[in-house]
Amino acid sequence: MLISRLLFIICIFISLSSWAKEKVQIGVILDPNGRFFNIQKPIYNGIKLYFTDKQDKKDKKDFEIKLIEAPDTLEGQKQASENVIKNDIRFILGHNFSSSSKMFLESLPKNYEMTYVTPSATSLELLGLNNGVFIIWPNNESQVKALIAFLTAKNLLHGKIVFLTNQSETFATEMAKYFKDFVKNNKAISIEEVSFIKDTPDLEKAVKAALSKNPDIILATSYSYELITIYQMALKLLKDQQQKPVFLAGDNVGRESIFFSKLGTEKPLMYGNFFFTEGWSASIQTKDNLKFISDFKQAYKEDPSAKAAAGYDAAKLLASAIRKSKTKSPQEVNRILGKISENLTTGRAKMSKNRTLSRPVPV
User: Fold this and answer.
1) DSSP class of residue 269?
2) Which backbone phi and psi does 190 adopt, to 5 degrees?
3) Is the pTM of this model over 0.85?
4) Composition of the chain by helix, strand, coil, percent to 5
5) How many angstroms separate the CA atoms of 221 and 124, rounded?
6) Cβ neighbours of residue 233 under 8 Å, at least 6 residues apart?
7) CB of 161 within 8 A of CB of 213?
């Protein structure tokens, strides 16, 4: 009888130990070895860095990272969603592109309970596809505040502003709206608008129309690749013009090196009054950013990028919410994430009510 009780107690102890050591599984849905490896690999490296950081081991041993390689195709995203369901993965870090995120989310059952934190997808449409979606790339309000603070500091916030807006994207029209709201009481400013639809021949016509208004400032809001096209067009049209407007770009054009490499032969035509918001900068002197840069260089023998920082920050936010959760359920983690405030690489960040992140933005 005594032996039976001892065996029973031992079995309970083993079960409890096993339960206590059970790791929280986090799926990472990227294609770091695919055709966009130069963008997605840094995100993956940033995520891995956070979970393998030897200087900050708090609870990280309790997470298991599972890479689900997902090519940027409908078939690839469907396969990824099937793997998520098959492995019952409820916590997800994933996707660089909004298009990939959308295909993946639409491939999941509508009632699939999860927490999905995307490092750099920005489309607000994603938020309506699942209540567990969180966008951590700086939200539009953060970007506009940064641009206005920059212009104010440079004594440039005056004269005629022309909004060159991608009318087919919600985030672009929302950014223009935020800007107008912030400067509506500034009597030194007049505002005009020129709209265009993504990927149409009207884009060049819109750029010409914006420049014909002789603006002091042009604020262009669209996707990164389209902003580069807009800027190339503007450079050619402004080539012989001595007085050039201040050119602002929203939606994070990307690191200067990436931007210039895409400009190619247009680089010599670059002029000084071009500024854009960025998701991250190596010049930010926060304790967290300096540590991130140092650790990244040590781990990968290269300088980090904005995408790497986005992966690192996304991992930190998700892990922090899971650690604060008692039940480790997606519902509770989502509730915590919805109110979370955390020190990230660019400074203190706080989740907004619409599940986008308000955070410091460099220009």
Assistant:
1) G
2) -120, 145
3) no
4) 50, 20, 35
5) 14
6) 203, 204, 207
7) no
Helices 224-237/256-263 angle, 10° precision: 60
- What are the φ and ψ backbone dihedral angles of 269, each rounded to 5 degrees? -85, 0
- Which two three-digit tokens encode residue 348? 């203190």
> Looking at this protein, which amino acid is placed at residue 131?
N
Q: Return d(Cα 213, Cα 206) in angstroms, integer.
A: 11
Decide if 94 contacts 30 (C-beta within 8 A): yes
- The pLDDT, as a whole number, for residue 232 is 78
CA 200, CA 184: separation in Å to the nearest integer? 31
Q: Cβ distance 83 to 68 under 8 Å?
A: yes
135: left (phi over 0), alpha (psi -120 to 50) or beta: beta
- Rounded-to-integer distance, Cα 213 and Cα 161, Å: 9
Q: What are the tens digits of pLDDT across the range 180-199? A: 998 888 899 999 999 888 66
The two three-digit tokens of residue 324, written as one number: 């604060």
Residue with tokens 């389209």: 226
Provide CB contacts within 8 A for 158, sequence distance 6+.
186, 188, 189, 216
Per-residue pLDDT of 210-244, as tens digits, reads 989 989 998 888 777 777 778 778 878 887 676 67
Which of 227, 274, 280, 213 has the alpha carbon at shortest distance from 247? 274
Q: In Å, how far are 109, 176, 230 from 128, measured between CA atoms?
A: 14, 21, 30
Kindly tell me if the per-residue pLDDT of 170 is higher than 60. Answer: yes
Handedness of CA 270, 122, 180, 152 (dihedral sign): negative
Dihedral pair phi/psi, residue 164, rounded to 5°: -105, 95
Burial of 146 (0-12, 13-18, 19+ CB in 10 A): buried
3-state secondary structure 70-123: CCCCHHHHHHHHHHHHHCCCCEEEECCCHHHHHHHHHHCCCCCCCEEEECCCCC
- 8 A C-beta contact, residue 292 and residue 55: no
